[in-house]
Amino acid sequence: MAIKVSVKTVRGPLAAKVKEVSGQDPNVCFQCGLCAGSCPMTGEMEIFTRKVMHLLQLGLADVVIAQKMAYLCASCHTCQVRCPRGIDIPAVVEALRLLTLRHGENYLAPESIPAERVREMPQAAMVAGLRKFTA
Ligand code: SF4
Ligand code: SF4
C-alpha cells in the first residue's frame, strides 16, 4: 500500500484528535514491538499496535481508521502493561474506534443479526457489543 507522508499529514487534525481523545502521545513510541508481540488478537488484525503507533506518528490516522483493528481489540490491556514507554495503547485504540463511530459509521448492523442468534446471546454481551460496534 503506497502512502504519502508530508508535513501536512504529520500535523493533520485527525491524528491530533486521536491524541486529544486518548490523552496519549504516539510520538513517544520507539517501535520496539513488544505490544504487538504480546497481543492475543494479532492473528486477526490486518495491522498491529506497533504499526498503528507508527502510522499515527506519520499523521496517518485515516489509514488506521480504515482498518478493522480497533474493533478486533479485546481491550485486554496486555499491550499497555508491556509497553516500556508507558503508553495506554488500548486508550489510543478506543479513540480510533470512537472517532469512527462519531462519523456515524456502524461496524455492525444490529438488524443483520439473525433472530435465532439474538435469542441465544447473553444480554450483557449483546449490550456491550452494540455499544462497541454501533454509533
Ligand atoms: S488491549 Fe487490544 S491491542 Fe492491546 S493486547 Fe489487548 S487485544 Fe491487543
Ligand atoms: S510496546 Fe510501546 S514503545 Fe513498543 S512498539 Fe508498542 S507502543 Fe511502541
What's this, in brief?
This protein is mainly alpha-helical and 135 residues long. The protein has ten helices and no strands.
Care to describe what's here?
This protein has 135 residues and is mainly alpha-helical. It has helices at 7-10, 13-22, 34-38, 49-57, 61-65, 69-72, 78-82, 89-102, 115-120, 123-133. It is globular, with a radius of gyration of 16 Å. The relative contact order is 0.16. Bound molecules: iron/sulfur cluster (SF4) (2 copies). The site of one iron/sulfur cluster has 16 residues, from helix 3 and helix 4.
Output the helix-strand order.
Answer: HHHHHHHHHH
Q: Quickly name the level 1 CATH class of the largest domain.
A: Mainly Alpha
Average of per-residue pLDDT values: 87
Structural class: mainly alpha
* Percent strand: under 5%
Which geometry do the CA atoms define? globular
Radius of gyration of CA atoms, rounded to a whole number = 16 Å
Overview features:
54% helix; 2 domains; globular; 135 residues
Task: Furnish the topology, listing elements before pairings.
Elements: H1 7-10, H2 13-22, H3 34-38, H4 49-57, H5 61-65, H6 69-72, H7 78-82, H8 89-102, H9 115-120, H10 123-133
Helix pairs in contact: 2-8
